[in-house]
C-alpha cells in the first residue's frame, strides 16, 4: 500500500481546504502544516506519494514556509526518485492574474528536478488569468483554486481532481 503524505502551506486557509479534502478522500494520517509541523526535508522521504500545497505570494512566490525546504532539496541534492507528487494551491486570478498560482510551477520544477514524477495536471481552459508559471505543456501542473473570484467552482474542482488522482495513482 502506498504511503501518502500531505504537506500544506496556507496563510488564510484556502489551500488548506484542498488539503482537508485530500486527507478525507485518501484517509491519510494527518496534514503536515508547513509552518507548524515541518522540521526537516527528511519528512518528505517517509512517503511514496506527496501531495504538496502552497498558496502564491509576492510576485508568483511560494508561501514563505516552503523557501528553506526548496532550497535544501535543490542544493543538498535530495533524491526524490521513485516518489509521485501532485501539487495544489490557492491564488487570485484577477488581482494577481500576472502570476496566477505560479507557486505550483516553482514547486513542480524543484520536485521534478529532484526526480519526483508529477501527476494531477489539470486543463487550464476553465480559468481566466494572464500568465502562470504553473502552466506546463499547455496544462496547469496541479490543482489551482481561486476563492476570491471563482469560489463557486472550488468544490467541483477539488472533487474532479481527487477522482483523477485516484485513477492516476490507481488506488
Ligand atoms: C501580497 C499578496 C500577494 C499575492 N500574490 C499572488 C500571486 O502572485 N499569485 C496569485 O495567484 N495569488 C496571489 N495572492 C493571492 C493569494 O494567493 C490568495 O489570497 C490565496 O487565496 C491565499 O491562499 P491561502 O489562504 O491558502 O494562503 C497574493 C495575495 C497577497 C495579499
Describe the structure.
With 171 residues, the chain is α/β, with parallel strands linked by helices. The protein contains 4 helices and 11 strands. Strands 1, 2, 3, 6, 7 and 11 form a 6-stranded parallel sheet that branches. It starts with a strand and ends with a helix. The mean pLDDT is 97. The structure holds flavin mononucleotide. Residues 10-15, 55-60, 90-92, 96, 99-102, 147 line the site of flavin mononucleotide. The site of flavin mononucleotide has 21 residues, from helix 1 and strand 4.
Structural features:
171 residues, binds flavin mononucleotide, alpha/beta
Q: What number of domains?
A: 1
Counted by DSSP, the helix tally is: 4
- Write down the CATH class: Alpha Beta
Distinct ligands, ions and cofactors found in the model: flavin mononucleotide
How do the helices and strands follow one another from N- to C-terminus? EHEEEEHEHEEEEEH
Can you name the CATH architecture?
3-Layer(aba) Sandwich
Structural class: alpha/beta
Distance N terminus to C terminus?
Answer: 9 Å
What form results from the Cα inertia axes? globular
CATH topology: Rossmann fold
**Strand element count:** 11
Q: Characterize the largest beta sheet: strand count, sense, and whether it forms a barrel.
A: 6 strands, parallel
Which percent range describes the beta-strand content?
15-25%
Mean pLDDT: 97
Radius of gyration (Å): 14 Å
* Helix percent band: 25-40%
The poorly predicted ranges are none
According to CATH, the homologous superfamily is Flavodoxin domain
